[in-house]
Specification:
The chain has 398 residues and is an alpha+beta fold. It folds into two domains: 163 residues, no CATH class; 140 residues, Histidine kinase-like ATPase, C-terminal domain (Heat Shock Protein 90, 2-Layer Sandwich), CATH 3.30.565.10. Helix content is 62%, strand content 11%. It is built from ten helices and five strands. A five-stranded mixed β-sheet has the order 1-2-3-5-4. A hairpin with a 5-residue loop joins strand 4 and strand 5. Helix 2 packs antiparallel against helix 3 and helix 5 runs antiparallel to helix 6.
């Protein structure tokens, strides 16, 4: 069921005030004119009451209110007149500009100007006296002044609303940037945590399983040695990560990120961890171009090798695990190959997060990466991880 909107309480107050004021003026016998067609004093109450009633519609039906108010104002000019009726009409004209649609807000001031000009010229042509200019001024105060005031108020309100919308949009964009920054930082932390700890925990899991399943004191002692070494190294990596997280508030220098200069130690550690599984890890560094690499590339390449060696420790069959580095034409190529197939003995489960982390690292640098089985040179099937990273320092300058 359709229900019409209720008048605003301020409009009710304006209507009541205008009506009471008009009644007071009428009772006191104060009229704006005399000698009109409808000279009876009570007739002036009709336009007064109608205009006061139209004040209730100044917000909800502004165009209808000003149209009917114009008729009431014309009728008032045929009576002894009331100042309250004229003042309420100026308010209806103002409200039509402020609360009406944009088209009405543009047309009403133009119509008010034309009506003021027509009234001035018409009276001047009739009276042939400079006093007609006073009639024009009065018409301008009644018609043009409230319309221009409404235009000014509407423009200020629209400007304020536009400023509020811009502020809301700016706040929304800032919140989106904050969320994206937090998400990116969380992803970076997840990659770092996985790459730092997964290698050590995988070695601990495999060798602890071997120590529990093989009843040999020498094997158990060797496994415990590997477990202890990886526990200490893993704890050091965790401390380094905590240092990175506290870096913004730390007073000392930030912890250095791993680089390709540490690959020898990483390969040596991986070889020690995987010796009992029948894996032999070697490094083939044949970079043709000299010079330092950008820090993001150094870190990404190191982490790719680290994660690939961890996956080999978990899943590779006995045989060689080879790490190859090539640098040519501004591209650093990283390859890690291992024998693809089943192997005896304990294995650590995988979650797939390592491959996701490697792809994210490479994507951030604009490189490419692939991982999967391929035929080897000796007829065996190998698992090959191959990444190509832009190695030009200028690519990373801002």
């Amino acid at each position: 069921m359709f229900t019409s909107p209720r008048p605003h309480r301020h409009d009710v107050l304006i209507a009541v005030t205008g009506l009471v004021g008009g009644l007071v003026l009428w009772t006191a016998g104060l009229h704006t004119q005399g000698g009109r067609v409808l000279d009876a004093h009570w007739v002036a109450l009709v336009p007064l009451v109608v205009t006061a009633g139209l004040e209730l519609l100044r917000r909800i039906r502004p165009r209808a209110a000003v149209a009917a108010g114009t008729l009431a104002l014309v009728a008032d000019q045929l009576t002894t007149g009331s100042l309250a009726t004229v003042l309420m009409y100026t308010d209806l004209l103002y409200a039509a500009v402020v609360y009406g649609p944009p088209a009405a807000a543009r047309r009403i001031p133009v119509a008010a100007f034309l009506a003021t000009l027509a009234a001035t010229l018409g009276v001047f042509a009739w009276l042939r006296s400079p006093e007609a200019l006073l009639i024009g001024v009065a018409a301008g105060l009644v018609l043009l002044a409230p319309a221009l005031t409404g235009v000014s108020v509407r423009n200020h309100r629209e400007a304020a609303e536009a400023a509020r919308l811009r502020a809301d949009q700016t706040a929304l964009l800032a919140e989106m940037d904050r969320v994206q920054a937090v998400t990116a930082e969380r992803a970076r932390m997840a990659r770092e945590l996985h790459d730092m700890v997964a290698n050590h925990l995988s070695a601990i899991a495999i060798h602890s399983t071997a120590a529990l399943s093989i009843d040999d004191p020498a094997t158990s002692r060797e496994a415990l040695g590997v477990i202890r070494r990886n526990s200490v190294d893993g704890l050091s990596e965790m401390r380094r990560l905590i240092g990175l997280l506290r870096e913004s508030g730390a007073t000392g220098p930030p912890a250095a990120a791993p680089t390709l200069a540490g690959l020898d130690a990483l390969v040596g550690q991986a070889g020690a961890n995987s010796a009992s599984s029948g894996l032999t890890v070697t490094l083939d560094d044949a970079r043709q171009e000299s010079g330092s690499l950008p820090a993001p590339v150094e870190l990404a390449a190191y982490r790719i090798v680290q994660e690939s060696l961890t996956n080999a420790l978990k899943h590779a069959a006995p045989g060689p695990v080879t790490v190859r580095l090539r640098r040519s034409r501004g591209v650093l190529t990283v390859e890690v190959s291992s024998v693809f197939g089943d192997r005896p003995g304990p294995r650590a489960p995988g979650s797939g997060a390592g491959l996701v982390g490697m792809r994210e690292r490479v994507a951030l640098l604009g490189g490419t990466i692939g991982a999967g089985p391929e035929p080897g040179d000796d007829g065996t099937e190998i698992w090959l991880v191959r990444a190509e990273l832009p190695a030009d320092e200028r690519t990373y300058r801002t």
